[in-house]
Specification:
The protein is of the alpha+beta class. The chain has 2 helices and 3 strands. It has a 3-stranded antiparallel beta sheet with strand order 1-3-2.
């Protein structure tokens, strides 16, 4: 399996490096592996759906 770095994923998905790190840390991308301080993201991984609230209205659960 081939992998890409956080920087490559950020460029491919049009996201910031920090956001991709958060996505990996939350386990939103299947097949992600962490080596020390670096993440390895599968090249065929799709951009996960952004679950952040953008409307400013918070939903109580």
């Amino acid at each position: 399996m081939e992998y890409m770095t956080i920087q490559e994923a950020a460029k491919a998905w049009n996201l910031s490096v920090r956001r991709v790190q958060t996505i990996c840390n939350e386990g939103m991308v299947p097949g992600v592996v962490k080596f020390g301080h670096a993440w390895a993201i599968p090249k065929d991984a799709e951009k996960p759906v952004d679950k952040r609230i953008k409307s400013g209205k918070y939903i109580k659960s």
